[in-house]
C-alpha cells in the first residue's frame, strides 16, 4: 500500500456515502433517458432485459467499483495504479475520465432544458391551444441557437459551484431532502397519469413483452447502455465516491440499495410518462424529447398543474445536479492529483472545458442538425458512444480487473463479503458471466451473429 493522503476528504458517514451514490445514480437517466430509450425499444421486452442486466451485471460491478475505490482511496486512474502498479488495467481509468467528459458534455445540455422548463412553470406555465403544440414549444426552444446554451451554461455553473466547494460539503447534503421529495412527486404524478385514459395501453406496453424483440441485438445493447448509464457505472464515478469512504465502513448492502432505488425510480417514472403518452397520442418512440412533450400535457390537465410542473422540474434539475456533480468529480479528482492543482482551479478549468465540448451537442438540435453520424445527431452520437460503448467496455474491464487482476482472497476481503457464498458468486460473475455477456452483446450488435 502506498502512502495514504491525509488531505483527501471523506464522507461524514456511511449514510452520507450511500445518499451521494444514490444522488449520482438517480438523475435524468431515470426519467428523461429511461423513458425515451424504453419507448424507442418497444417497451416490455426491453424492460425485461434491462432488469436482468441490472441484477446480474450492474449490481456486481457497482460492488466492484465500490470495492476498488474504498481499497485504493484514490481517483479512478490512481486506484488502478495503486492496486496494480505498472499493469495495463489503468486504461480503464483513462477511459473513465474520457467518459466523464463526454457524458457531462451532453448531460449539461439536457439538464439545461430541464432548468428552462422549470422557469416556464415558475413564470406561469406553458400556454398552448392543443396538446400537439407542446412539440412545437419544445422544438422552438431546442432549435434556437443561443437559448439552450444559456441554460446549459447556467446548469454547468451550478455543477462547478458544488464541486468547487468540495465533496463533503457540496455533495453529501444536497440530496438528503430533495431526493425523497422527487420520489413522492413522481409517485403522485404516476397515480394521476394513470387516470388519464391511457393506462391500459401503457401497462401493456410496459409489461406485456413482444417476444419478437428478443431477437433484435440492438435492444440488448440499448438495455446494457441504459443499465450502465442509470447506475452511473463503468466510468469510475462509484470508484471515486467509494474512495471517500473510510476503510472502516462496510460495503455490502450499499450496492444493492443504490441499484434498487435507481430501478424503482425508473419504473415509476415509466408509469408517469407512458399513460400520458398513450392518452395524448404521443409516439412512444418520439426520441430524446419525449418527457418534455409528454409531461406538459399532464400538468396542463391536472389541478394546480403549474405548481406541480414547477416543483417537478425543479426537483428533476436538482436530481440532475447531483448526477452531474459526480461526473465532474471523476475528472476533477484525477486532475487535482495529476497536476497538483487546487480543487478550485481544477474545477473551473475542467468544468469550463466540458461546457465547451457540450456546445456542439446543443447546436446539433438546431443549426447543426445536418451534421450526423450514421444518421444520429451529435448529441445522440455522444450519448451512444459513451453509454452504449465506453461504459459497458469500462465495466467489462472493471469486472475482469477485480475477477482476475486481483488475488481472490484480497478482493473478497476488500469487498467486505469475505469467503462467503455471496462473495464467491460475486467473483464468479465478475470473472465469467459479466464479461462474457457484455462481450456477446457487443458482438451481436455489430452483426457477428
Ligand atoms: N446515473 C446518472 C443518471 O441516471 C448519470 C450518470 C452516468 C452519472 C454516469 C454519473 C456517471 O442521470
UniProtKB/TrEMBL annotation:
InterPro entries from the UniProt entry: Na/ntran_symport, SNS_sf, YocR/YhdH-like
Localization, per the record, is: Membrane
**Topological type in the membrane:** Multi-pass membrane protein
Keyword Transmembrane helix in record:
yes
User: Cellular component per GO?
Assistant: membrane
Q: Does the keyword Membrane apply?
A: yes
Q: Which Pfam families match?
A: SNF (PF00209)
**Its domain of life?**
Bacteria
Membrane spanning segments where?
12-32, 44-68, 89-113, 149-167, 179-199, 219-241, 253-282, 302-335, 347-364, 384-406, 426-448
Q: What keywords are annotated for this sequence in UniProt?
A: Membrane, Transmembrane, Transmembrane helix, Transport
- Which named protein is this? Sodium-dependent transporter
- What species was this sequence derived from? Anaerobacillus alkalidiazotrophicus
Upper classification of the organism:
Bacteria, Bacillati, Bacillota, Bacilli, Bacillales
